[in-house]
Amino acid sequence: MKISVFYDHLLEACEQQNITIQEALQITKSCGIKGIEINLTCLLENEEFIMKNLRALDMEISCIYEFYDFGNSTDLSYGKDHILAAKRTGADKILIVPGFLTEEEAFIINQVSDNKDTTTKEMNKNSKVLQMKEALIGLTNYASQSNITVTLEDFDSNTAPYARANQLLWFMKEVPGLRFTLDTGNFVHSDENVLIGYELLKPYIVHVHCKDRGIEENRDENGTYNKGMAACPTGSGYMPIGEIVTKLLQDQYTGYFAIEHFGADNQIDFIKRSANYMELIG
């Protein structure tokens, strides 16, 4: 099993524990973690330093992610820089967050998202969604020339037209070569069942964010699957991560499992506990 962790978590750990990034990376490596999930802007700001530290520990970048506004802009230049950075640093996958809608626009699509046909109809009517699709087509084609895979995740935002399973399925079918990064903790934001989302999008999964969610008392009582969004170590919350990981491994999944817990009050402790859990179920 290949495990990675978000570089942002290590930067947070440095502040929390008053340690250097090299020390944080060493602790991470000692937990059996080989990969780093990193934001493109962060990488480009200090690429030589970051890569030197990773290579010293025989670690690598599992995926590079970045946020865009393709619903309002057709400029693909930074997206191409994203792909070139992946090629340069040896990362074979990138994650694109292509943009957001207004609350009003998103509501129209979200209210019919439990049905594939009505989702398709509304997605095809929204000009921003169509512009995101075209941008993803262009970048996926460009990335394929360097054997780099472009992915989209189930993003936890009401204004993301790729937060829900049928919305993501539309993108997967409309953009040849686009693949799916499954975030185990994000479907509940839309009160969807991650196991149903997993089965629907299973053919497209090439990367996984193992994000757990902690139960919160002050949650929306109308939620069926959403019991809270609290940050917690992987394996300590209510998400069925063990079941999903087992299914993936049985299906010969060989990609990374990236542990994720933004907002942790002690990132080093969370990293150790998350990595230990992943090793146990792997």
Automatic annotation (TrEMBL):
InterPro entries noted in UniProt: IolE/XylAMocC-like, Xyl_isomerase-like_sf, Xyl_isomerase-like_TIM-brl
Domain Xylose isomerase-like TIM barrel, chain residue ranges per copy: 27-275
PANTHER family: HYDROXYPYRUVATE ISOMERASE
Name of the featured protein: Inosose dehydratase
Species name: Anaerosporobacter mobilis DSM 15930
